[in-house]
Amino acid sequence: MISGLLQPVEMPIALPQTLRDPFYQLEVPAAVISKFEVEATTNPIEDILKKKINEEACGEEATYFVDLGTVLRKYQQWVTHLPRVTPFYAVKCNPNEAIMNTLANLGANFDCASKDEIQRVLKMGVSAKRIIYANPTKMKSHIKYANSVGVEMMTFDNADELYKVQECYPEAKLVLRIITDDSHSICKFSTKFGAPLSDCARLIALAKELQLDVIGVSFHVGSGCLSVQSFMDAITSAHAVFQMAAEVGYNFRILDLGGGWPGVDDGLINFPSIAEGIRPLLDELFPDTEIIAEPGRYFVAECHTLAVNVFAKRVVSDGHEQKFLYYVNDGVYQSFNCILFDHYEPTPLVLDAGERTQLYKCTIFGPTCDSMDCIAKDVYLPELRVGEWLYFKNMGAYTVAASSPFNGFKSSPTTFYVQTPLE
Question: Which residues are catalytic?
Fold first, then answer.
């Protein structure tokens, strides 16, 4: 294992022996612990929040608490349930430096969608061979950059992309992204990306004519997929495309299961149930194929807890009942953009409710002057005082990655790092 931030190393795409290796340890790199002042703790998150607030470490600022121990546990779960599948972490989900270094140190690779994301990964010292450029439609300048730094794998889903790659990077190792049924997913991607199965034979033949190296198939069942069957059907479709490729002389060797993996295990579907459903099918249809995936929220959703301060309050009445409007220091232009872009419904929790049992209808607004900056509407909470704190769990996926400084408010909340025990 590498004890510090990664140095440039050549590592295979496939996972190391990891849990099967008696010398392998699931750990946060020592340099990450030092740089980000990671505090080891066995305390529940509520106690950690109260301690920092009492120390006035948060001030009036919205504050993230990132548990790198959760990242370790998620990785352990992945290699236990899907030992054949190498995770390529989707950088777009949350480009947190501490998390990415921890994942790289564990053996995970990276899914990048742009030149900037590739640069972020390479800056950590990760080999370019551990990156898949998983954007089916790429700018020429970005393709040329990938070529210049040695990123070999990249996806495509149309003929024009093949001509572009032939011009800019004919040595690239290409992965054909196919359309799958994403009707059971919260965020659907098939309207934007993926080749229909009816087009695949033509695209494979064109790639052969252009003398391009197509090495496999990828798919994405959609973000927030709620169906194991969607994964299974996509795997079956990928197998059919492998057979198409064999008919024109290709020997595909990579299957990319894409994203859509749930970030929490207490929802309508969980990761172990997906893994249990697809493992036999992968062994049946792809016994000798290298298999990868592009999990994003799976690794980071649970590890972030966001604490926000109630800095203002209004009391309103409709003549029948008293309601409260609360204003907090993070909103939909910052971390809560996930409400608009990721269809997330965050649950506000009162940090120190005490013995207050009477609940009132409340609406929680963010700090900007936009009336659409609403975090939660008509939720029931005890009456809060100005200066109290609310907190939100599972705030690591598609939150800070898309935040902005609109209206002059901070786009990056104060962040503290902790590490809870692996077991």
Answer: 369
